[in-house]
Amino acid sequence: xxxxxxxxxxxxxxxxxxxxxxxxxxxxxxxxxxxxxxxxxxxxxxxxxxxxxxxxxxxxxxxxxxxxxxxx
Length: 72
Known about the structure:
Layout: E1 11-14, E2 24-31, E3 35-40, E4 43-46, E5 52-55, E6 58-63, E7 69-70
Antiparallel strand pairs: 1-2, 1-7, 2-3, 3-6, 4-5
C-alpha cells in the first residue's frame, strides 16, 4: 500500500526485502501535499564500514508514494 493511504498515528513497516534485518517501523505524524512526516523507531543501519549499528528514533519526511506495510 502507498504511505499516502494511511492516517495520522498509523504504524507502518518500510520493508527491506533484500535484508529483512534492515526493515524499519515508523508512525505517521503529518500528511502534507507532497510528503509525509514520519517518526522512525529504533532500527539497524549499515555504517560507513558496512557494520550494523543501531540508529536512535528520529523524524523525517518521505514521499507519499512510498510502498509500506500497515501494522496490524
